Amino acid sequence: MDENIPPAEASSNTNDVNEQESGGKTSDDVPTEPSVDSTSTSPMEDEPKVDDDDNADVNDDNDDDSSDSDSDDSTPPVEDPTELILKAVSHKEDGNTFFKSGDLNRASREYRKGTSVIKGLNKKNTGDEQIKSLLLSLQTNLSMVCFKQDKPKLSRDVASKALSVDSTNVKALYRRAVAHRKLGDLDAACTDLKVAFKKEPNNTAVRKELISIKKELDTQKEKAKKGLQRAFSKGGGGSFLYDDKEEEMKRKAQEKKKKKEAEQEELKKRKVEWEDECVTRMSKDEPVI
User: Fold this and answer.
1) How far apart are the first and last CA of the chain?
2) Residue 289: helix, strand or coil by DSSP?
3) Lower Cβ count inside 10 Å, N or C end of the chain?
4) Which SUPFAM superfamilies match (predicted)?
């Protein structure tokens, strides 16, 4: 495959998008133009989202079967956070391996398992940077897999989960933007890319996608403009607009005509009054005005 997934370390660099476009091979690279992988299965838009704990066997090894306990309601011991992180990293690594081999379904499951393992360490987004970084890596990878499986809605939702951890994460913004575009929401895609571009103005993948979307928006605006111009033409389907304009011109002409007639009538009336005044003065041998 021509796209790499992030290495299995707990922390993940949010600048991987830029590094991939600049020619470097990173393990969590963003594809410049994401496309659906031919090896993916048919879309299943109802696949559980990242926060769904759909793998009941993830924490099976936490069960405490001690027969020495006299209490029927004993609670299982809390697992060491370090162990949980190591498990999440292992799931991430397995997901990367499945992704590289083209097994997107199993890659998706591993990324979701990894997320489920450590999500409890970031309740209300209070986890440390190591946990947040690992969550971001798992979720952005899962978003990419969903996109390749032709599940843009799920890809968008998973990316949104990642953005709830870090609202300015460039990779998550990029993932959600391409999903928005696939769903036909160019304005939302443009909004996400502008935020990403503001944070990383030299990110090649973000720049290319933003330029591409702006061109598409300009094309749509041009088509709308031409449609409006046709509406004003005589032979166009919007002749009613032309008729309204012609009607307005007629109305103004009538108003002007009425005003002129009123002025002429007033002048005629004043002339008659002046003539009557002159006759009256003449009859009294008074000088005519």
Assistant:
1) 108
2) coil
3) C
4) TPR-like
* Number of other residues whose CB lies within 10 A of the CB of residue 98: 20
Whole-structure pTM over 0.70, yes or no?
Answer: no
Report the C-alpha gap between 91 and 84 in whole angstroms: 11
Contacts 24+ apart (CB under 8 A), 48-53: 48/112, 49/154, 49/157, 49/158, 49/161, 50/112, 50/115, 50/138, 50/139, 50/142, 50/158, 50/161, 51/115, 51/119, 51/161, 52/112, 52/116, 53/116
How many angstroms from the chain centroid is the CA of residue 115?
Answer: 24
Q: What is the pLDDT of residues 24-71, one digit of tens each?
A: 444 444 333 333 333 333 333 333 333 333 333 333 333 333 333 333
Instruction: Calculate the average pLDDT of the chain.
Output: 74
What is the 3-class SS of 133-184, one letter each residue?
Answer: HHHHHHHHHHHHHHHHCCCHHHHHHHHHHHHHHCCCCHHHHHHHHHHHHHCC
Q: Is residue 149 packed enough to be buried (19+ CB in 10 Å), middle (13-18) or exposed (0-12)?
A: buried
Residue 207 structure tokens: 């720049």
